[in-house]
Amino acid sequence: MKPTPMKPSPLSWSDHPASPSTGEVICAVSGLKEQGGQEFTFHKGEESFSLFVLKHQGHFFAYVNGCKHFVGTPLNPNKTGDFLHPNNPELIRCGVHGALFKIESGECVLGDCEGEFLDPIPLSIVAGNLVVG
């Protein structure tokens, strides 16, 4: 019996050619909305990389703006929405097919990608700015 080949593991967000580098500023902390999420796009040459940041209960969370069900599909199609479920702002919602994710962990709790996780971006606050790392 032949062994089943393993699927190649997906690249880390940091391997994307346009992803921000460790220490790169995303935005000023004071510029973030109190509720909802904000998208930030980084460009390098022809490539672009999108992430979103949420402020939730005094903490900041950042994730790659890509659903785990339709890989590469942004959670906010056509750049609309603020990433949160309209009736439950404790959950992130995919605007394409309605999957729901926990803010604190990125875990999908409802939808075709249940049990998978959004790709987190590590954050720090440096001199009043939210930075990668």
Description of the molecule:
The chain is built from no helices and 10 strands. With 133 residues, it is mainly β. The strands form 3 sheets. It has a 4-stranded antiparallel beta sheet, with no helix packed on it. The radius of gyration is 16 Å and the shape is globular. The N and C termini lie far apart (45 Å). The model is unreliable at 1-9 (pLDDT under 50).
List keywords for this structure.
mainly beta; 3-stranded antiparallel sheet; Rieske Iron-sulfur Protein; 4-stranded antiparallel sheet; globular; 133 residues; disordered N terminus
In short:
0% of the residues lie in helices and 38% in strands.
Write the layout of secondary structure elements.
Elements: E1 25-28, E2 37-44, E3 47-56, E4 59-64, E5 84-85, E6 88-93, E7 100-102, E8 108-110, E9 123-126, E10 129-132
Antiparallel strand pairs: 1-10, 2-3, 3-4, 5-6, 6-7, 7-8, 9-10
Query: Strand arrangement, largest sheet?
Result: 5-6-7-8
Structural class: mainly beta
Number of strands: 10
CATH class: Mainly Beta
Largest sheet at a glance?
Answer: 4 strands, antiparallel
Question: Spans with pLDDT under 50 lasting ≥5 residues?
Answer: 1-9
User: Multimeric state of these chains?
Assistant: single chain
The topology string of helices and strands comes to: EEEEEEEEEE
CATH architecture: 3-layer Sandwich
